[in-house]
Design goal:
The complex is a heterodimer of chains A (692) and B (563).
Chain A (H helix, E strand, L loop, with lengths): L8 H14 L3 H4 L3 H19 L5 H40 L4 E6 L2 E6 L8 E5 L8 E11 L1 H4 L5 E4 L6 E2 L4 E4 L1 E6 L7 H10 L7 H35 L9 H11 L2 H20 L2 E3 L2 H9 L2 E5 L10 E7 L5 H12 L5 H14 L3 H4 L4 E4 L7 E7 L4 E7 L1 H10 L6 H12 L3 E7 L2 E9 L6 H10 L3 E5 L4 H11 L3 E3 L4 H13 L4 E5 L5 H6 L2 E5 L4 H6 L2 E3 L6 H39 L22 H25 L8 H34 L4
Chain B lengths: L2 H30 L6 H15 L9 H24 L16 H12 L9 H4 L2 H31 L9 H27 L9 E4 L5 E4 L4 H10 L20 H25 L3 H27 L19 H14 L14 H12 L10 H21 L4 E2 L2 E2 L2 H25 L3 H4 L6 H16 L14 H30 L16 H35 L5
Antiparallel strand pairs in B: 1-2, 3-4
Classes of the chains: A alpha+beta (692), B mainly alpha (563).
Chain lengths: 692, 563
Amino acid sequence: MSQKHHIDFGQIFSLALKDAFVKLDPRVQWKNPVMFVTYIGALLTTYYALRHWGTSLFGFEIQISVWLWFTVLFANFAEAISEGRGKAQANALKKTRSQTIARKWVGHGEQKVSASELQVGDRVVCEGGDVIPADGEVIEGIATVDESAVTGESAPVIRESGGDRSAVTGGTRVISDRIVIQVTAGIGHSFLDRMIGLVEGAKRQKTPNEIALSLLLSALTLIFLAVIVSLKFFSDFSMLAAGQDLSHMVSVPVFIALLVCLIPTTIGGLLSAIGISGMDRLIQRNVIAMSGRAIEAAGDIDLLLLDKTGTITLGNRMATEFYPAPGCPIEQLAKMSQLASLSDETPEGRTIVILAKEKFNLRASEFLPEKVQFIPFSAQTQMSGIDIRTSEAVEKIRKGSLKAIEKFVQEQNGLMPREVISTAEEISKKGGTPLVVAQGKEVLGIIQLKDVVKGGIRERFHELRSIGIRTIMITGDNELTAAAIAAEAGVDDFMAQATPEEKLKRIRQEQAHGHLVAMTGDGTNDAPALAQADVGVAMNTGTQAAREAGNMVDLDSNPTKLIEIIEIGKQLLMTRGALTTFSVANDVAKYFAILPALFGTLYGTTTEGPLNVLNIMKLSSPQNAILSAVIFNAMIMVLLIPLALRGVKYKPALPWVILRNNVFRYGVGGLMAPFLGMKVIDLILSGLKVNG
Amino acid sequence: MKIIEILQVLVFLAILLLLTPILGRYMADVFLGKKHVLSSSLGWLERAIYQCCNISPEETSNWKTYTLQLLFFNFLGFLVVFLLQIFQAHLPLNPQHFSNVSWDLAFNTAISFMTNTNWQSYAGETTLSYLVQVLGLTVQNFLSAATGIAVLLALIRGIRNRGTDQLGNFWVDVTRSVVYVFLPLSIVMATVFISQGVVQNFSPAQTVETLERESQTIPMGPAASQIAIKQLGTNGGGFLNTNSSHPFENPTPLSNLLQLIAILLIPFALTYTFGVLIRSRRHGLAIFMAMFILYLAGLGVSLWSELGQNPALLNTSFMEGKETRLGIVNSILWSVSTTAASNGSVNAMHSSLSPLAGGIALLNIMLGEVVFGGVGAGLYGMLMFVLLTVFLCGLMVGRTPEYFGKKIEAPEMILVILAILIPNVVILLGAGISVILPMGLSSISHAGPHGLSEMLYAWSSAAGNNGSAFAGLQANTPYYNVGLGLSMLIGRFSVMIPVLAVAGHLSSKKVLPLASRGFRLDTPLFVFLLIAVILMIGALTFFPALSLGPVMEHLLMKQGVLF
């Protein structure tokens, strides 16, 4: 959506810069223990520097202080910029929530009222050009609706009463036709309102895993506090024992600098940005998560319940083959099938017409007799077709299930050929649906309807299985058909003739075994299952009930997106883990910079003491060594902001392969990077001669 | 190193590795309540204990009750040892007529033995009556070790359990480990020690005239019985002041080898028991490997440092403070084992080790006593590191972390972090405050970095429940008796209680199915990561302190400066 709604990145950047300073408010800082310690450190070093105003210490200490302030500001900036995108999106959404005049339906007439006066249960009329004033269900009529305000998708969608495409969203526009809507959400509680709240991040709560991690970070901060306090005591003792006074170097500001370098500022500063941008990445894929918890749960999903239709197979069944009965030419079968399907508006019916046209170049309109009567499908007869009136008689062409046609021809003293029956059985076994065609008492043959499995879906499931996620296909088809498609698509299991109750039961069962279940759904009857699933993604085209029940809404209504959602969830956790490892691994190098700077001359007979061997980076001076560490610590956060916003790369692979790669990249990398970084900064500092 | 020395090390390790699965399997049977070799011959004792203590072995309890029972039991132990000491002059079995022990020393000693630390601010042969040694200290040697095992068993049940919060019966766990593990092993060991010349009697100390016609007091007492459990239960408190360097406590090469084995035997074997109980012997092996690698690394560095030359003393080797009977290799094997295993007995003075070997001894303790560590305590401490590793690894593979199918969430993480970090904070702040307070400083007997090492060692030893001393620090003052006493208490229970709470939390958690678990816990990669996490926590916490202590001393020694 961010690409579709125009967002000005320059503006986000400048807003974030401003916010970075606004967030210096101690009440904001207090919420993040790691950065709060840095904040206090910055305050204290400033105090010490100002106290040494005019002495030789001032220059060095004020530099430490400035870089500590930068560290705090960079963390603020990271958070602000991750929030910025959401805010910009929210602003774009707010614009669509303009003051609308609603045509309220009262009794038998209309009354113009302001949209804000509408209440749940009211009925409003919308015609071409009207903006839909509130969330609701279509209770009458059918219309094309432009939902680009919400979804960013410019192609209009159909909304009609009854069925699973009845929900409309306030703020969208009716393009043609007329519908009557029953309002389902009051002002302030509409879908748009909730979406604005979510993307703004106003109601963002810390997720369970984020809480656990921030506890770990706080504990690390505490232990480093103990390290530094005790180090102060140890160094006092050592200076006394050595009879040396190193207080120009072994001073409170330097200890604070060391403390800030050791506490995990990198992950501490970026933690909330990672969480917010995880939510943001979903929004970019047009998925609205109702809670951060749902995204985190997505990373753990190990069972997918997928609807067959639209997810695993291409829409509806398609006619794929004609099987003529003995003695009937195949063209005849095709021609009659096409005739019988002309009025059939179901997707299957249309594919029969198309198949006949493609295979035999038949165009029914060219030979359509003049006097015809279309017989629509009825539940009673289980058939549809066409009656052609010639002067002598009425010729009845019918297509339908084997049983229905058998009955139909028997009524006219016709017979169902044995070959047709066996062909029909064979088609069923292979997962197809046989549709028998008869002309009068004559059985012409069979049209084979088949589900077509989406290209590449098999590979996708294989990929999922390799990362430990099973898939279950859900379908209303019978066992035989379901099994055949399941085998073709390569799913792990299937549920045939699944009722909503069975779905719910299955989810509960799997959860009782400890599985985390995700599913997509759009119908009202999916709502209980959506609510029960750990991750329930409702299609935006679905009913209001479904959208309420799920904890995510997919604005594109693309069920395959579940797989992407899982990846985003995993990516979120991985980014946290990677940056924590990186942050902690960095500390080793910092000891090698700061300890020799502090104690390099301790017990030294000349200028160099024994601990100078720790100065393996050969940093130019103690002051530069300490500044290098502090500057590196601040700069690494800036450099990692893009990674925090984008997330670490995720490619489905075996867990131990991912682990090994990430340990190498962020653990070993985190160990080495600061040695290099601090050396470079030291070279620059000594080149600039800032410290003499 | 001479061939014979290398052989000694190899034979020692080979025997240990051979016994590990045998004893490990046996203990698993004991703790599962299955039939085993001793169930018929010692079963009556177990049942008799239940009967006279009114214990119903079938009853189980949740983690809170289990913890309360444990605390009550330990407090009772503390009280007995404390009272026996402050009234010892009025009690029997005091042939030397020692006076009552001061309250602060009695406090320190009682806590020390209750917490399996066995830090000794006193000298056994000149302070305590035989009654205190036998009824107070030896009994606690058994019970503190059994307490460690009980906590480990509760944690294992927490991990194994499915949909229950019952962690077992504390009294049964203690009884079984004493009756079937510590008692039989101790009896065998004590008998062998007596055969080697360790004293075991209730006679008063003998005064003899030496060849130089001066009088020397030779201590006596029931030593062998206490020494066996001192080693087996990773207690380490010597009957005599110089511990296992005294010829009456460790008379022969055979007794030395046996005591060395006894130090590590149960901690080694428990990793195997753990594997069996957790139904993943490979995970048990992975944990064993992580411990073993850290142990060997410490041994390697120490030997390298000790067998090198001492430039300050005209390139002689480091024989100061060592028993000439035992030599360098056996002393180092001991110093590394006793600090790794939270045992704390010594056969050489750690203060006189070369700076790096002393530093390794110190680091072994600072890592949290998880390189095998104390009986039970080492493994449950290690499991806290395992949970931390699992948490970090889980994040790295993009799954919320789980251990054997149980999710590790915020409440468990707090507890794990507490268990790992509190002892470290105690060490840092205890030693830090002591080097600036006059009360603390006045006890230091060495100058410069060595004095700092001395101080770090004392507080680490207390908080890590190790109990060995660097020697040199005059610890029998009210300040140290109380201060170190409190750190032993915190070091023990700030780990134990969170561990039991973790066990309680894990116990009632839903179990995730096997297929959906993240990464494997039995691979070399996991061993590597576990070691990395342990070293990172240890190094990041103690690197500055160690660099001002042992590292500084080592570097100065190379310049010819000694302390």
